[in-house]
Structure formats: C-alpha cells, structure tokens
Design brief:
Elements: E1 3-6, H1 12-20, H2 30-43, H3 45-56, H4 67-76, H5 79-97, E2 104-107, E3 113-120, E4 123-127, H6 136-149, E5 153-158, H7 168-177, E6 181-184, H8 187-196, E7 206-208, H9 213-222, E8 227-228, E9 236-241, H10 247-258, E10 265-270, H11 273-286, H12 293-303, E11 304-308, H13 312-322, E12 326-330, E13 346-349, H14 355-360, E14 386-393, H15 396-412, H16 416-427
Parallel strand pairs: 1-11, 4-5, 4-7, 5-6, 7-8, 9-10, 9-12, 10-11, 12-13
Antiparallel strand pairs: 2-3, 3-14
Helix pairs in contact: 2-3, 2-8, 2-9, 3-8, 4-7, 5-6, 5-7, 6-7, 8-9, 10-11, 15-16
C-alpha cells in the first residue's frame, strides 16, 4: 500500500519525480470554463441561472439566501455542533489577531515625511463547495482572517442542493463567522459572478476558497480582474517519524489526507524499516473501518510512499525538498527540530498534534500551499486580505535641495517629462 524507498540505495530525484507528478491528466476543462466566464460577463444573472439549472439541476428564483433560511438552518443542526464551531472560531480568531500589523512613518529634516498605511480589502468572495461535500471548517478558515483584517463585505457563494437549499451546517458556520451575504451559486459560473459582477451579485476584490477543477481553473483565469488566494492542488501530508512513534497514529494520519482525493499524497519518512512494516499493517487494519476506503486505497497505492533515511536530519532535509502542505514531526522533542524546517505549509509537532487538529480547531489556518509551493508561499492569513499604500511629503525647501539630482536621473533614463515635472517647480521658486 506504500511504496518503499531507501535513500542509501534509491535516487532522491526519482522519489521527488513521483511526488511531483500528480496532475489530473486527460482533464481538459479550459475551453468550457472560458466560455462560461465570457457568458456570465456578458449576460449576468440570465446566464448564471442557466448554468445553475444545467449543472445543479435546480431553478432558483432568488440567488441570495434569506435571513429566514439562515434562521431555519439553526433549527436543523445539533447544539453540540454550534458549541464546537464557536470554540473553533474563537481559536481561529485568537490565532489570526496576532497577524495584524500597523503601518509606519519616517520623519526627516526639512519637512520630509513618508510611510506606509495598511488597508483592508473592501469586498471579498468565499467559495464553499456544495453537493455531497460540505466543509463548514473551510468557511471558518476563509472568513475569520478576512474579518480580523477588517474586510467589511464578505460574500459567500455555494452550489444549491437539488431542493434549492444550502447545507445547514454551512449556513450556520457562515452566520457565526460573520459572512455578510450568501448566494446560491457554484462552479465556474459562481466564480465568474464574483469576478465580474451580475445584477444580483456585486463584484469582489478577491476570491478565496477550495473547489473542483472547474472552480480552480476559473479562479486561475479571472486572476488579474480580481485577486485569488492560490491555485490549490491535491492535498498532501508528510510524516517524519522516529522509532518511538506509534504506528497506529502514523497510519491514521496518512489516511486522514488520503481520503480527500485520489491524487492526494501521503508520505512517511522514517529511520526504521520495522516502523514501515508496522505502519503498513495498521493501514490494512484501519482502512476497513473507513467510509472513503476506495479513495484512500487509490491514493496510497499510487501516491503513497515510505522513504528510509539514515537519521531524522536526513528526513527533514528531504522534506524541505518536497515542501509539503502538512508536515508532522512525530519524533521525540519535536520542537527542537523546528529550526531545521525550511519549507512546509503547516508544521505539527509531536505525537499528539495530528493534522486534523489544525484542520478543524486549534487556530492556525488550514488553507495551505500545495504542490511544493510552500517553497515560496504561505498559509492564508490576515495578510491575504490587506493591501498597502505608501505616502510621501516633501516641503518646497526639501524638493529644491534635491531637484537637480532627480532631473539628472530622469535625463539618464531619457524621460524628459519626468525631469520637467521637477524643473517647473524649481523655476517657479
């Protein structure tokens, strides 16, 4: 169920090639999505309703979810769920408040001052998958940092069910998290509505949230008209485990990511061949109890692996090259190794910090870079929902003192109008 490699025998480049080659080959959706985007941009609600009927098999009279529908959702979910989600939201909010930062100002002599101000985006769109997949946690993780950043208008879209409704757990979480508007729209057509605006849905500044390949492709294509969080690939987990790590825990955590997607990658790096055998035994035991067994088996058989390393340092060195979305350091004194980690979306330290703890509850964001992009990108956070503006003030005297230098630089670039902008002020003195 897990391919086995040994760094003392197998080429590192061959191992990395297997991990990096997880594209969903043969899926060509670009033309379809392009046509949908053009159609929504031209025809607005008319086309949005058409695609909702075509793909979701439902006629929608009013795209916006009413307050009555939201109130009704609260009657359909368990009180225990509401209480658990409130605690999770509090944890997520507490964590992200630490990310808030202020601008700065620099003052110099002669009436010179400059600086930078931090401004929240005004209106953002959150995509939430619908249908059989309902992820309330995704709502909280995408909405809370935007709220903390100061975004005033947070719009959520999600595909309607066959009866024209929305999953009540999604609605309840959206209300608790602070979503401003909710619309029954999904797929590439929903992304287009957020990016370009329709009669019902006002355009946004940024789109965040996960979705299928049509949604991901649409987000990629509208980037530039609006900002997006990322183009996310299949999920991945990498576990570094020493000989004392519990094989039962390792197997459970590997499968927790494998169940997301057939293309998900679950990797074990360990110093012990015996640990590998124990983990495989546990995988075969535990998988029989899981509802998404078929997906897990496909993922582990095709993209699961174990690599035997000489020591934990070598494990982490290989992990840095892989740059995983989720990294679990299931080793003794795990915090001592934190400084060796260079590339990872989120790091889970110790035997009792499994990845689902971060997915649902603890506070750090679960929207993370995938496909090795942790080399240069970061988890979703407050910074994802802000922009910066610089400001500058020179007094008359200050400009006069440096005007000749500015004109010289403009001259060397052949931009005479730039130089003239300074010259007319100096001559008018």
């Amino acid at each position: 169920m897990l391919k086995i490699f040994d760094l003392s025998k197998d080429k590192e480049s061959d191992i990395l090639k297997i991990i990096q080659n997880r594209d969903d080959e043969g899926t060509d959706v670009l033309n379809v999505v392009n046509n949908i985007l053009k159609d929504i941009r031209k025809n607005g609600d008319k086309s949005l309703n058409y695609y909702t009927k075509q793909f979701d098999k439902v006629d929608i009279d009013n795209l916006r979810v009413s307050n009555e529908e939201i109130e009704e959702a609260f009657t359909k979910v368990e009180e225990d769920f509401i209480n658990a989600m409130k605690l999770a939201i509090n944890n997520i909010e507490e964590y992200h408040k630490k990310q808030v930062r202020s601008g700065y100002s620099i003052e110099k002599e002669n009436g010179i001052f400059m600086g930078q101000i931090i401004l929240p985006l005004q209106r953002i769109g959150v995509y939430v998958p619908g249908g059989t997949a309902a992820y309330p946690s995704s709502v909280a993780m995408n909405v809370i940092p935007a709220k903390v950043a100061g975004v005033e208008e947070i719009v959520m879209i999600t595909p309607p069910s066959a009866d024209g409704g929305i999953n009540p757990y999604i609605l309840v979480t959206a209300k608790l998290a602070g979503v401003s508007e909710i619309y029954k729209a999904g797929g590439a057509q929903g992304i287009a509505a957020l990016a370009y605006g329709t009669e019902s849905i006002k355009k946004v500044d940024k789109i965040v949230g996960p979705g299928n390949i049509y949604v991901a492709t649409a987000k990629k294509l509208v980037f530039g008209d609006v900002d997006i969080d990322m183009v996310a690939g299949p999920s991945e987990i990498l576990i570094v485990a020493d000989e004392n790590a519990n094989a039962k825990y390792i197997a459970a955590d590997l499968m927790s990511q494998a169940e997301h997607d057939k293309l998900a990658s679950s990797i074990l790096l360990t110093t012990s061949y015996e640990k590998y055998k124990e983990v495989v035994e546990e995988l075969n035991k535990q998988i029989t109890l899981l509802t998404r067994r078929e997906i897990i088996e496909y993922s582990l058989n095709n993209y699961g692996m174990c690599v035997i390393c000489k020591d934990i340092k070598e494990c982490i060195k290989l992990s840095n090259k892989i740059s995983p979305e989720h990294l679990e350091l299931m080793v003794e004194n795990a915090p001592d190794y934190l400084g060796q980690v260079k590339n990872a979306g989120s790091i889970f330290l110790g035997y009792y910090s499994p990845e689902p703890l971060g997915d649902y509850f603890a506070g750090p964001n679960h929207v993370l870079p995938t496909n090795g992009t942790a080399r240069f990108s970061s988890p979703l956070g407050v910074d994802s929902f802000i922009k910066k503006s610089s400001y500058l003030h020179y007094s008359k005297e200050a400009l006069n003192s440096v005007g000749d230098k500015i004109m010289l630089l403009a001259e060397k670039e052949g931009l005479t109008a730039h130089g003239n902008s300074i010259k007319v002020r100096l001559e008018n003195d």
